[in-house]
Each structure stands twice: as C-alpha cells, then as structure tokens.
Amino acid sequence: MCRMLLTWSVQMAVAPSASITQRSARSSSPLVVLALLYGLVLLASWSPDTLQLMMPGSLQEGLTGGFNPQFFPTLGSVMALFSRPFTAASFLLHAAAINLIAARSVYLDGLVSRVPTTHSILLSAVVGPLGFLCHQLTKAAYAILASISGKDLRPAAKPVAKKSGQGTIIILPYE
C-alpha cells in the first residue's frame, strides 16, 4: 500500500503532464480506496476499552469544582493503543491519506498556477502538511519575483486538448 502511494506521488512529481498521471490525480478513486481501507482497519482496531484509553476521566469529575478538564489522553494510554497492530496500521493509513491528499492538492494547484511542484510533491509524500506549505511558499516566491522583475517567471502554459469526432476543447491553461 505504501509502495503504491509513494509510486503515485513520484509519478505526479516526475511526469506531471503524462495523461495517466492527470487522469489518476483528477480521479477520487485512490482516495476512496484509501478511505475504505482506513475505515476497515480502524473498525478492526476497535475494542471495548478503546474509548476509555483515548479519553480517560469522568464527566462527573469534570463538572465539579469549576474548571476541571477531563478526557485528555495520557502517554500510557496512547502507548497502549499503538502497541496494538491494527491501531498502529490505522495510524499509518491516516498519515498516508494526509500525505496523499496534500500531494494531490499541490499537483492539481500546480497545473493551474504553473509553478514548479516536484519538490513540494515529493516533500508531501513524506510529510504532507510541510509539502503543502512549501508549495505555498514557492507560489509566493514566484509572485514576489514577478512583481520585482515585471516579468512572469513561471514556465509557459502547455494547453491540454481533448479531441473527439466533433471537435477539440482546450482544458488548460485557465487564463
């Protein structure tokens, strides 16, 4: 599973204009499969004491004597949860989903904004939110450099055409 997600991220980074990359990135099917797998593993990881480990404490104690917060997990309960194989697998799928969604978002935005995305997609494959942040910083840097130089420094837009027997429609660029 991780190999498939990493392959998809590398494909978006290395061959962004390939038709198979664009079709798979625009499709929600990989995300649906990942979400279903995550749900199944999460369901398999659930046991009668899971909720007590995640949120120890009692509502009655929390409501007595003013501000007395309850339901904060302890390090011991978190360790107990993640020592279970299915719970650890659900966490890995959760992290993989976040990274994949971030990489896909960077890829799709890069098609429209025409800024380089290879570095951000590869970073998103490992640490999703930081890859997304890197992409936003790249876009900002291109905007600042364009305003200083007075030139559009982004790579030239490559139109994506969809041809059929009835004609051709240009899908990209969006300007």
**Shape type:** elongated
SS strand fraction: 5-15%
Summarize the amount of helix as a percent range.
Answer: 55-70%
Number of strands: 2
Order of helices and strands: HHHHHHHHHEE
Roughly what is the average pLDDT, rounded to an integer?
A: 83
Largest sheet: 2 strands, antiparallel
Which structural category do the helix and sheet elements fall into? mainly alpha
Cα Rg: 22 Å
- Which blocks of ≥5 consecutive residues have pLDDT under 50? none
Number of helices: 9
Kindly report how far apart the N and C termini lie: 37 Å
* Lateral arrangement of strands in the main beta sheet: 1-2
Oligomer: single chain
Overview of the molecule:
The protein is mainly alpha-helical and 175 residues long. Helices cover 66% and strands 6% of the residues. It has nine helices and two strands. It has a two-stranded antiparallel sheet. β1 and β2 form a beta hairpin. The radius of gyration is 22 Å and the shape is elongated.
SSE blueprint and pairings:
Blueprint: H1 2-14, H2 19-26, H3 29-45, H4 50-54, H5 59-62, H6 75-82, H7 85-113, H8 118-126, H9 128-149, E1 160-164, E2 167-172
